[in-house]
Amino acid sequence: MKQIPLAIGPENQASFDNFMPGANGAALAHLMSLGLSAPPVYLWGPGGSGKTHLLQAQAARVQAAGQRVAWFDAQDHQPWEVQPGWSLVVVDRCEMLDEANQRAAFALFEDASLHGVQWLAAGRLPPVDLPIRDDLRTRLAWGHVFALQALPDAETRAVLRREADRRGIFLSDEVMGYLLARFERDLGHLMRLLDRLDRFGLAQGRRITVPLVRQMLADEGVDEGPEA
Predict the structure, then answer these.
(1) How far apart are CA 98 and CA 92, in angstroms?
(2) Is 42 helix (H, G, I), strand (E, B) or coil?
(3) How far is the C-alpha of 60 from the C-alpha of 15, rounded, in Å?
(4) Are 126 and 137 contacting, i.e. CB atoms less than 8 angstroms apart?
(5) Residues 137, 204: Cα–Cα separation, whole Å
(6) Are strands 41-44 and 144-147 parallel, antiparallel or unpaired?
(7) Among 14, 69, 98, 225, which residue's CB has the most CB atoms within a 10 Å radius?
(8) What is the radius of gyration, based on Cα positions, of the chain?
(9) pTM over 0.85
(10) Which one, of 2, 3, 33, 38, lies nearest residue 116 by Cα?
(11) How far apart are CA 44 and CA 149, in angstroms?
(12) Which residue, among 31, 68, 37, has the nearest Cα to 53 in the 3D structure?
């Protein structure tokens, strides 16, 4: 378990304002209206569909109100215990919970319910398909469940453009097309790739172009992959 620190600068922090909803507007609207002690929420969908972004946005909002948040990744070490003063408990990557952490998550859910602590969780699979114990699966399906969808091409490009603009990077249509044609399209992967390109471009003193992308990948020994 780890406490979620507020970001150094608001532009770097996942928030509801910088979430691109696409087809996920219902989940966004529900979380934005969520009050403390509301029924639990479970988000599921493929990688890059925005699950972790929404969890982080809610955690940041609760922290900004001066309340305490606890965040558990499925592979975090135990103990997992509710502590006094918590207002929100988050469990991410539920499909990765091993047997021991399934027991811990179930106990955590029960304690959170008993003490009126808000519960949010996410995973790549709907509760019914999670490879976990039946009682925990039932708890995850008990409240509001939202299926999230990955962004279509045009909105993925808009997110990349917005993040590049925030960093002061010019990202041409040619570069974006190259990235989207040859790499995973989930936003987490693309943001990490943009981080690397930003650092590499600064180190080289060059703007980001397709040849620069290829040079960075060659220097890293990364296979750029065939065009999709």
Answers:
(1) 13
(2) strand
(3) 7
(4) no
(5) 50
(6) parallel
(7) 69
(8) 19
(9) no
(10) 38
(11) 9
(12) 31
Place of tokens 């509301």: 38
The residue type of 48 is G
How far CA 31 is from CA of 39, 59, 112, 145, 214, in Å, comes to 11, 11, 18, 11, 40
Residue matched to tokens 């955590």? 108
- Tens of pLDDT, residue by residue over 7-66, are 323 344 788 888 888 889 999 999 999 876 789 999 999 987 889 999 999 999 999 999
Structure tokens at 34: 């969520």
Rounded Cα gap, residues 200 and 207, in angstroms: 10
For residue 54, give both structure tokens: 């929404």
- Decide: helix, strand or coil at residue 126: coil
Contact between residue 108 and residue 72 where contact means Cβ atoms under 8 Å apart? yes
β-strand pairing of 2-3 with 68-73: antiparallel
